[in-house]
């Protein structure tokens, strides 16, 4: 068994889970984070150390394990109001307050909580590497998604700052394009996948495995730090 212990946030499902499983299949140890002790995720392919934290709450006691690497996959993605119409719409001030709270939530879960976790772990025992999941849309704005986008743009800044501040610990990010479509209906899903594929240079949608591979590459690449690696099939290259 390897000495490496990777803490993966948001490990109970989707991409975070796939990252945790990939580490386990390499015979590595994993601390699998999830939001709540009340949730009951499917068992992993090998034993994991479990750790729960709702990132809206203060940081609880850190896991006791000698964590060497951190993968920050947990994130909040919540649709909001288009900012241009906030003041004019019926109930304008109420909506501004609602949107301000949404922005605070995104900054808390997508920026401040990961920052607090990483600096606390590193202060206790220096980390080898940190990989943060961002989003290829981190520097593009879409009406109704600005709270999320601002938190991701700030996340990119944080990755570069942590790389400088925590060296020789390496800090990088993967910024995926959409690899898991949001709709469930098979017909709508196929349509969404086609639309996503058409917007890429490679002409296809990426997979969770593409993201996992990039995360593990950055976690292990000894001379790469402060990088934001887009895994998006060339979304913004044309
Ligand atoms: N899926 C994609 O196509 C895609 C595209 C671009 C970027 N990304 C990025 O890649 C990462 C993983 O994506 P995903 O689709 O797998 O993510 P997801 O399903 O949207 O959510 C990931 C995890 O975030 C955790 N989380 C949310 N709020 C939390 C809170 N307050 N406290 C603690 N945990 C919280 C959830 O934990 P629980 O399950 O325990 O509630 C969930 O498992 C995210 O950072 C996402 O922004 C994904």
From TrEMBL:
Asked if the keyword Oxidoreductase belongs to this entry, the reply reads yes
Q: Which InterPro entries match?
A: NAD(P)-bd_dom_sf, SDR_fam
Q: Which Gene3D superfamilies does the UniProt record give? A: NAD(P)-binding Rossmann-like Domain
UniProt-listed Pfam families: adh_short_C2
The UniProt record lists the keyword Oxidoreductase:
yes
Key words of the record: Oxidoreductase
For this chain, the family text in UniProt reads: Belongs to the short-chain dehydrogenases/reductases (SDR) family.
Name of this chain's protein: SDR family oxidoreductase
Source organism of this protein record: Lysobacter gummosus
């Amino acid at each position: 068994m390897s000495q490496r212990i990777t803490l993966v946030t948001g490990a109970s499902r989707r991409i975070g889970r796939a990252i945790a499983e990939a580490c386990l299949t390499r015979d590595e140890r994993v601390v699998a984070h999830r939001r709540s002790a009340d949730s009951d995720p499917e068992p992993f392919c090998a034993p994991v150390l479990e750790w729960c934290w709702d990132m809206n709450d203060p940081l609880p006691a850190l896991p006791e394990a000698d964590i060497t690497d951190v993968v920050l996959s947990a994130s909040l993605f919540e649709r909001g109001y288009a900012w241009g119409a906030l003041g004019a719409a019926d109930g304008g001030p109420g909506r501004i307050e609602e949107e301000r709270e949404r922005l605070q939530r995104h900054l808390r879960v997508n920026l401040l909580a990961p920052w607090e976790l990483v600096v606390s772990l590193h202060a206790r025992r220096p980390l080898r590497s940190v990989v943060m999941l961002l989003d290829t849309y981190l520097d593009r704005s879409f009406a109704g998604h600005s709270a999320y986008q601002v938190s991701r743009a700030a996340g990119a800044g944080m990755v570069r700052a942590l790389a400088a501040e925590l060296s020789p610990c390496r800090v990088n990010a993967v910024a995926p394009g959409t690899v898991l479509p949001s709709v469930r209906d098979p017909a709508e899903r196929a349509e969404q996948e086609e639309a996503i594929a058409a917007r890429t240079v490679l002409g296809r949608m990426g997979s969770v495995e593409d993201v996992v591979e990039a995360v593990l590459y950055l976690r292990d690449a000894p001379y790469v730090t402060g990088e934001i690696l887009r895994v998006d099939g060339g979304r913004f290259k044309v």
